[in-house]
Amino acid sequence: MRVILAEDSTLLREGLVRLLAEEGHDVVAAVGTAPELLKATDEHRPDVVVTDVRMPPDHKDDGMRAALEIRERWPEVSVLVLSQYVENRYATELITSTGGKVGYLLKDRVAQVDEFLEALERVAAGGAAFDPEVVRRLLTRTTHVDPLETLTAREKDVLELMTQGLTNARISTQLHISQSAAEKHINAIFDKLGLSGSTGVSRRVMAVVRYLGS
Asked: How is the beta sheet containing 78-83 ordered, strand by strand?
């Protein structure tokens, strides 16, 4: 796949470039600032962008704001955010900006090379990939708890794995249940959250959105 990397740490950026090249991916640009990221995306229209949250010029949320702009201007480009922090408001905006093609991983996850590469490929293919810790912090932050109170303990387990972007088959394996049981739990979650009329990946993502109250 064609990838753009945006990371202001030269060491990490070059390490990711080498890793992706070794895996056969084409890194068409590797930049260190948010403006450079937007310019490179406009020029190359990659399959996926991997970006940090806090980047120059302001060293605040420049990378995340650039990611949201990319989702708005070039919705065909997938976006995987890497961060040392969980930026609650912007993470919610990223999730709600699309029914797929997005991911949010903590940088510690990059050390788990196989998990990082799997998440990157999943996002590039049109799916979603959210770090379990990101999901946990976002879910505990919401004050809209009524839907959660209607879920069983098993449904909550299933929902957490859904929001990480796992397939029904992966969920069944993770929880040691049959795939048909996983599907029944997922349908029950959709019903309890009033998402019965939704379809596809967006319905799974909207399950998280309902919890966040956004």
From this structure: 26-31, 2-6, 48-52, 78-83, 102-106, 128-130
Global pTM reads 0.67
Range(s) of the chain covered by CATH 3.40.50.2300: 2-140
Report residue 188 as tokens: 């029950």
Calculate the dihedral angle through the C-alpha atoms of 157, 158, 159, 161, rounding to the nearest 10 degrees: 90
**Which residues of the chain form CATH 1.10.10.10?**
147-213
Sign of the C-alpha dihedral computed for residues 15, 129, 93 and 159 taken in this order: negative
Query: How wide is the angle at C-alpha 199 spanned by C-alphas 196 and 205, nearest 5°?
Result: 90
The answer regarding whether domain 147-213 maps to CATH 3.40.50.12280 reads no
CATH topology of domain 2-140: Rossmann fold (3.40.50)
What's the pLDDT at 30? 97
Say how many residues make up the chain: 214
Question: What is the rounded CA–CA span in Å between residue 186 and residue 163?
Answer: 11
* Contacts of 92 by beta carbon, 8 Å cutoff, 6+ apart: 138, 209, 212, 214
Express each pLDDT in 132-162 by its tens digit.
877 777 666 554 446 667 888 898 899 888 8
